[in-house]
């Protein structure tokens, strides 16, 4: 005797062999057959059936993005064509329950439940729990359906599928709501990135990443869109460059900088802020942080200039009172700024869990930080790599971290004594000094994950690493 699942598969295969019959059967098709039939039609690229199924979908959400690992234009056109059929219905709620088309590339329980790979029967409760979470609509009115997307744009031009979706959605703005919770740029675009927001609800964007080495002009052109992202919670800006021809033109640099900085007054929901290689921060950090409604949880500032007034604001401003993650790396600081950094740590002793201070410490200034560092009892991870420290200074540093019992991951620089006059690592010294430093910790507590990193090896361009067992780069083995 055939099992119920086998009979279901046979029924699906039979339907898919006759396209007209499958489309006609949707009116009376049992609810539980829709997901497996949709998956089979999707895998078989039977676009006419997909179009009809979207218009007749019996669930509130269709998480088709979980199936579209590599979106194909014809399949996307069929899915959106199904929405067009739905939109044209006089009373779409009467025959179709679809409210949300989820195009995000994410795994959902929904398909596993209906495919039988999840334990348990497909009761209404199971179906409800398997539906992907959807934020509340931003605006109500005429819209028939909400489309959810996350965009990761890693090429200089838009792919054909996104170009088509943008055109399609722009024509239907009065009956459609497009929500993009995460927007990532991985390249400097040849198109105007601001035009993307013509079809999205900018207020829906919660995460924005710019990782493609944008120039100052491109970010300034995009800035009005940034200012509309009033629910933005996480902002990552990586390598915002000043073009060579602008270096001597202070007026144009200032204009672009003002256009960008002024938008931060609208981003009062920010919780996580990463500013890496952003040249416009100098003397403006207070303008970036002062409008936040709630204290930041994450602040990372790397590869840029900070003035003493910027550091002073960090020690006084309310927006950093509850930081759990702080990174200040490869930033040029004055002696007074190092003292201010010590005061900043004093303010964070009760909350800070991750601290990364890379490329800013020397034997002359590290002592300023140590008293406050030893009071940061919630620290779980620290990184002091890329600093130029002697064995003596590293011992002092380890003596102050040795009593931080929550530490799980610790990364320190190899002492300057492990290099020869040409900057090459001396293997015997490397092992001896790092082993001795590790014993400094072992004398107080049992360390978990402790690493000592050298500068990049001049021969193989890798790091030499010492942990609980000696690991050297290949050229030293």
From TrEMBL:
SUPFAM superfamilies (alphabetical): RNI-like (SSF52047)
Domain of life the protein comes from: Eukaryota
Iron-sulfur found in the keyword field: no
Keywords, comma-separated and alphabetical: Leucine-rich repeat, Repeat
Stored PANTHER family: PRAME LIKE 11-RELATED, SIMILAR TO PREFERENTIALLY EXPRESSED ANTIGEN IN MELANOMA-LIKE 3
Record family assignment: Belongs to the PRAME family.
Name of this chain's protein: LOW QUALITY PROTEIN: PRAME family member 12-like
Species this chain originates from: Mesocricetus auratus
Organism lineage string: Eukaryota, Metazoa, Chordata, Craniata, Vertebrata
